[in-house]
Fold Retrovirus-related Pol polyprotein from transposon 297.
Amino acid sequence: MFLPDAELEQPSLDPPSDGAMVINRLYLSDRTSRSKYLIDTGADVLVIPLTTASKHLPPASLQRFAANRTVISTYGQQLVTLDLGLRRVFKWPFIIATISQPITGADFPKPLWVAC
C-alpha cells in the first residue's frame, strides 16, 4: 500500500461557507417502474402517494401523522412489487396517502430480514 508523504485533508463537517444548505437523502430505486422510494429512518409504515388512478378511493378512517404532527390522510392499501436489483422481487403492502413521494423505512422489509 502506498502512503503519500503529505497529510490527507479531512473532510469538513461544517456547513458550506457560501450559506447553501446541503441535503443528503437516500433512495431505493425500483427497476420496473423507475420510482424512487425515500428511505426514512423514522418511518413506521411504507407509504405511496395518492395518484389519479387511486383518487376514487374513499378516505380511510385511519389517519397518520407526520413528525411535525400534520395530519396525513390515508386511502387504504395497495400491494406494490419492487425490483431493487437484488436476488428477488419484493411484494409488499403500502399505505396510500396524501404525500408527495413514496417512503419506506430503513428496515424495509424487516420481516424478511428476520426470516433469513
